[in-house]
């Protein structure tokens, strides 16, 4: 597969690996609502924030939606969209790498973009996600009227590039049927099975046993046109007539057609790649939504809530985890909250506090803008606001001063097992994975906060550890057991900080 090359590629493809793990620190004055929530709003650089999420959420996110800077050569108030092309690629590549790690095996990523970078984005996403996992490129009609003041051609659309983590494991939901679709059904004969529409009973090209006489209720006989055939065998068609599933018109003399009952058709419709503004909203609608909760400022390129509703309807179910690492005005989080999805939103600008948090607060309080009425939103729930803290490791690769047990435990577990940590991290025993038990002796977890109190593996400390039948990996500041004893006990000892990698 061909790769895209740019000036700083060799450095940029290693950026994600070299990005430090940082702590996430709650800022309680910006959190709101129910404290017992997993919803997160993170303020800070999204590369650092994404790396900080890996030990907890790798492989857990069902849907990622991002609306990154389009690199349109224009300066936006809330972020610099005037990035030179190579810098734009350098910004996107490592973030997409980490986003892929966060995505669940049956998850999908949706990226809105325009023609300035869409084709380059497709190439680097082919590289990161795999060309086989490309789903499609949807087209959103973001402007509902032609701009006649444009010099050449009025550009009325944005693109939505969609990939799966593993397209073979991916399933998408149907969209609800529309009133127009249901309006095609009626019940002129008062059939007790309800409304129906009629369909053709004749197909092209002749077929053996497909040409016979059909007798209607008035005795009138019908035959297929030349070089065509009935789509059912004579036996099956006569059974359908007996079951009142064939319509001969109100007088019983019309050419027969099959009745398709609304109650029996698929209760939904498959999404397509043409997203009309009438169906999912447009830029002006999105600006009006934002103005409802912040009248002083309007974002230049927001997405309407109906747009995100379509994405989340297709890609997620209630309680699934949604991630947006370019949160902007907070639309993704607001829609996810109203639709009963869990969410993580990341925004580096001050509008994480001036726009996103206030918007979510109003959602929790039951605001009725956007999709609220359509989904029956009445309020409730909560989110917790975080900022980026210090790196887990210093520039020399050592555990930074002041790092607590919990983040180090989550980091070690993720590095050792490759899966996010879901334990309580309230004891030295972190858990077992594939028959191996993992232990961490750090920060006085055994109750003795003296420098060597419980953080060094001794015979006494070993006797007090939770029993695990199988191999053990123990992290600690030192070890006083002999190599023979470690082998006999099935222990692999790893010294802090020298044998903890930053990945």
Concise overview:
By secondary structure, the protein is α/β, with parallel strands linked by helices. It has helices at residues 9-12, 15-18, 46-57, 85-102, 118-129, 179-182, 234-242, 277-280, 283-293, 305-315, 331-338, 351-364, 372-375, 405-417, 459-464, 483-489; strands spanning 22-26, 32-33, 40-43, 61-66, 103-113, 134-141, 157-164, 196-199, 202-204, 214-215, 221-222, 228-230, 246-247, 257-261, 274-275, 321-324, 342-347, 382-391, 429-433, 436-440, 456-457, 472-476, 478-479, 491-495. It folds into three domains: 9-176 and 269-390, Vaccinia Virus protein VP39 (Rossmann fold); 179-264, no CATH class; 405-495, no CATH class.
Protein architecture, described:
With 503 residues, the protein is of the alpha/beta class. It folds into three domains: 9-176 and 269-390, Vaccinia Virus protein VP39 (Rossmann fold, 3-Layer(aba) Sandwich); 179-264, no CATH class; 405-495, no CATH class. Helices cover 28% and strands 22% of the residues. The chain has 16 helices and 24 strands. It has helices at 9-12, 15-18, 46-57, 85-102, 118-129, 179-182, 234-242, 277-280, 283-293, 305-315, 331-338, 351-364, 372-375, 405-417, 459-464, 483-489, and strands at residues 22-26, 32-33, 40-43, 61-66, 103-113, 134-141, 157-164, 196-199, 202-204, 214-215, 221-222, 228-230, 246-247, 257-261, 274-275, 321-324, 342-347, 382-391, 429-433, 436-440, 456-457, 472-476, 478-479, 491-495. The strands form six sheets. Strands 1, 2, 3, 4, 5, 6, 7, 15, 16, 17 and 18 form an eleven-stranded mixed beta sheet that branches. Strands 19-20-22-24 form a four-stranded mixed beta sheet. A three-stranded antiparallel beta sheet has the order 8-14-13. Strand 4, helix 4 (85-102) and strand 5 (103-113) form a beta-alpha-beta unit. The radius of gyration is 30 Å and the shape is elongated. The relative contact order is 0.14. The mean pLDDT is 89.
């Amino acid at each position: 597969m061909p790769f895209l090359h740019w000036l700083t590629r060799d450095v940029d493809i290693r950026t994600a690996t070299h990005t430090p793990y940082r702590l996430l620190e709650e800022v309680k004055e910006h959190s709101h609502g129910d404290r017992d929530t997993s919803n997160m709003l993170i303020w800070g650089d999204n590369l650092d924030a994404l790396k900080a999420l890996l030990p907890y959420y790798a492989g857990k996110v069902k849907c990622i939606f991002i609306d990154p800077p389009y690199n349109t050569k224009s300066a936006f108030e809330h972020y610099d969209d005037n990035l030179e092309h190579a810098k734009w690629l350098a910004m996107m590549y490592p973030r997409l790498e980490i986003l892929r790690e966060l995505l669940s095996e049956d998850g999908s990523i949706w990226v809105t973009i325009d023609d300035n970078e869409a084709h380059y984005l497709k190439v680097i996403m082919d590289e990161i996600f795999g060309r086989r996992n490309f789903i499609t490129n949807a087209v959103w009609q973001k402007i509902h009227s032609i701009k006649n003041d444009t010099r050449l051609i009025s550009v009325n659309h944005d693109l939505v590039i969609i990939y799966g983590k593993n397209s073979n494991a991916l399933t998408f939901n149907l969209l609800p049927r529309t009133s127009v679709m249901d309006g095609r059904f009626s019940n002129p004969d008062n059939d007790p099975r309800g409304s129906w529409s009629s369909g053709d009973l004749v197909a092209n090209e002749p077929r053996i046993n497909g040409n016979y006489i059909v007798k209607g209720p008035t005795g009138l006989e019908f035959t297929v046109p030349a070089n065509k055939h009935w789509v059912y065998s004579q036996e099956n068609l006569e059974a359908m007539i007996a079951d009142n599933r064939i319509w001969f018109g109100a007088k019983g003399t019309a050419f027969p057609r099959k009745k398709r009952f609304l109650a029996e058709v698929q209760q939904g419709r498959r999404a397509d790649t043409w997203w009309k503004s009438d169906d999912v909203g447009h830029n002006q609608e999105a600006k009006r939504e934002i103005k409802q909760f912040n009248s002083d400022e309007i974002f230049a390129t927001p997405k309407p809530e109906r747009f995100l509703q379509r994405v989340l309807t297709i890609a997620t179910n209630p309680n699934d985890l949604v991630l947006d690492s370019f949160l902007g005005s907070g639309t993704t989080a607001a829609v996810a909250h109203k639709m009963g999805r869990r969410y993580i939103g990341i925004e580096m600008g001050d509008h994480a506090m001036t726009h996103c948090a206030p918007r979510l607060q109003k959602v929790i309080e039951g605001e009725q803008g956007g999709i609220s009425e359509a989904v029956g939103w009445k309020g409730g729930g909560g989110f917790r606001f975080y900022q980026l803290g210090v790196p887990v490791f210093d520039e020399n690769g050592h555990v930074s001063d002041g790092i607590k047990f919990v983040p180090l435990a989550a980091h070690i577990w993720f590095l050792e097992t490759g899966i996010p940590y879901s334990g309580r991290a309230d004891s030295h025993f972190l858990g077992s994975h594939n028959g191996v038990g993992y232990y961490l002796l750090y920060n006085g977890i055994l109750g003795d906060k003296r420098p060597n109190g419980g953080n060094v593996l001794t015979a006494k400390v070993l006797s007090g550890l939770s029993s695990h039948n199988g191999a053990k990996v123990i992290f600690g500041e030192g070890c006083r057991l002999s190599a023979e004893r470690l082998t006999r006990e099935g222990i692999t000892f790893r010294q802090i900080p020298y044998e903890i990698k930053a990945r």
